[in-house]
Amino acid sequence: MGCATTGTLQSDVYRGTETTYQIGSVSPDWTRVTVDDQNDLAWHSSAKEGVMHVDSSCDPALDIPLKALRGHLLIGFTEREIIEETLVPMDGREALRTHLTAKLDGVPREIVLQILKKDECVYDFGLIAPPGAPFESALADFDQMVTGFTTD
After folding, report:
1. Which of 98, 121, 128, 130 is spaced 20 to 30 Å from 78 by Cα?
2. What order do you get walking across the sheet with 13-16 strand by strand?
3. In sequence order, which residues have a C-beta less than 8 Å from that of residue 84 and are 6 or more positions away?
4. Is the predicted pLDDT of residue 2 greater than 70, yes or no?
């Protein structure tokens, strides 16, 4: 989901070649994983059966509508059904938050994406889990991580 920068995470602060930002703390239920050339940060939880990610890209040419950016993140997903889509405050701007169901390779998934544009950068956050209880269990952890987001 998105293009990656190379960086480090220390004390909930990500420092990359293009951007620096802070996230909310991630529960110990989640194990950090590396997804080469895909995300700044990603985690997997076996207990919650989900994955979360954060990514950033900084380029003035990325000044495109949030809904178009969302569409890019959903490439490969089929049978998409939006449950709710809202603009939410985030780090002094409006971010697009989309909750939906979709299939990936025929497997049902429940997804929440949150996308922010700020200072010529795009930040995208995602949670993907099996629908229902696994997703609901993981959502509080995702929200904690996203709520703590600020740029430096």
Report:
1. 121
2. 7-10, 13-16, 20-22, 150-151
3. 97, 98, 99
4. no
Distance separating alpha carbons of residues 41 and 4, to the nearest angstrom:
9
pLDDT in tens, 98-116: 999 999 999 999 999 999 9
Pairwise CA distance, residues 109 & 1, whole Å: 15
71: amino acid identity, one letter: G
Cβ neighbours for 11, distance < 8 A, ≥ 6 positions apart: none
- Collect all residues with Cβ–Cβ distance below 8 Å to 79 and sequence separation of at least 6: 101, 102, 103
What is the C-alpha to C-alpha distance for residues 140 and 76, in angstroms, rounded to an integer? 26
Higher pLDDT, 17 or 45: 45
For the whole model, what pTM was predicted?
A: 0.91
